[in-house]
Amino acid sequence: MPYTRRISVADAAGTGYPHYKAGMPVGIESATMLSGYLEDGAHPPLHVHDVDQFFIVLRGSSTMWLAHDPHQTKAGEVIYIPARYPHGSDNHSGVDEHHIELMVPGVRPGEPLLHPVESADAVQLPAASPYVTNVSAPATEESSHERRWVLADASTGIDTARITAVERTRAGGEREPVTQDTDRLVLVTDGQVNTEIAAQPDLVPAEAVIVIPAGVPHRIWSTSSAPVRYLDIDLQTPAAYADLAPAA
């Protein structure tokens, strides 16, 4: 499997909603990732998902409706939207908007990505509430060459994903290959990173996602003097997929 997937409008297709295109760079058991492009004038209507969603704004801005509440998005934000929470977007900013929609866990084959709803009042809101986060607060961890911001984890009520924003200002990183029990996604937003996954080296540019399945040895580092920024995403494999594994 290709461990690195590009994120490009060239790979996007129409969604059935005017001025809104999307691609699917990642579709695994633990997460489905859509790359969305809202052209000026786009208006995806209110809808809900059966799973949690993280809406990651890469470029541009739009008005996101969270039930009845409008929120003006901006680049660098991560917006958590709980499962079954109605939301939609309007882009009347005059410029195109580019975002990532990360659905956790992954949407199972044959199941719909979303369910349109007539209004926010037609849906019983879940107990969890949306929230917006970014890297404007002080870093959670800081060293001479790297800063990290924990944007979502168990402390924020999320037990399916841990999302950390990473900014590396000097060459460095993981020196030896590591493995982990969870799937890992690395969404590169600025600069480029060096990778070695299952002994395969690569140089990954911005606007690409690295998919590292659980148990695969890997390391990620930087040889560039230019700043590198990425989102490091750890995912739990949903228990529902355990039934698909062959019997021991």
Structural descriptors:
248 residues, mainly beta, Jelly Rolls, seven-stranded antiparallel β-sheet
Layout of helices and strands:
Layout: E1 4-6, E2 13-14, E3 20-27, E4 32-38, E5 47-48, E6 52-59, E7 63-66, E8 69-72, E9 78-81, E10 87-90, E11 97-104, E12 115-116, E13 131-133, E14 141-142, E15 146-152, E16 161-168, E17 172-173, E18 183-190, E19 192-197, E20 200-205, E21 208-212, E22 218-222, E23 228-235
Antiparallel strand pairs: 1-21, 2-3, 3-4, 4-11, 5-12, 6-9, 6-11, 7-8, 7-10, 9-13, 14-15, 15-16, 16-23, 17-22, 18-21, 18-23, 19-20, 19-22
Explain this structure.
The protein folds into 2 domains: 4-133, Jelly Rolls (Sandwich), CATH 2.60.120; 141-235, Jelly Rolls (Sandwich), CATH 2.60.120.10. Helices cover 0% and strands 47% of the residues. It is built from no helices and 23 strands. The chain has strands at 4-6, 13-14, 20-27, 32-38, 47-48, 52-59, 63-66, 69-72, 78-81, 87-90, 97-104, 115-116, 131-133, 141-142, 146-152, 161-168, 172-173, 183-190, 192-197, 200-205, 208-212, 218-222, 228-235. It has a 7-stranded antiparallel beta sheet, with no helix packed on it. The chain starts with a strand and ends in a 13-residue tail after the last strand.
N-to-C terminal Cα separation, in Å?
25 Å
Fourth-tier CATH superfamily name of the largest domain: Jelly Rolls
SSE order, one letter for each helix or strand: EEEEEEEEEEEEEEEEEEEEEEE
Helix content: under 10%
Low-confidence stretches: none
Cα-atom radius of gyration? 18 Å
Sheet/helix structural class: mainly beta
Output the CATH topology of the largest domain: Jelly Rolls
Largest sheet: 7 strands, antiparallel
Mean pLDDT across every amino acid position: 92
Q: What CATH architecture of the largest domain would you give? A: Sandwich
Total of domains:
2
CATH class label of the largest domain:
Mainly Beta
Strand content: over 45%
- Apparent shape: globular
Number of helices: 0
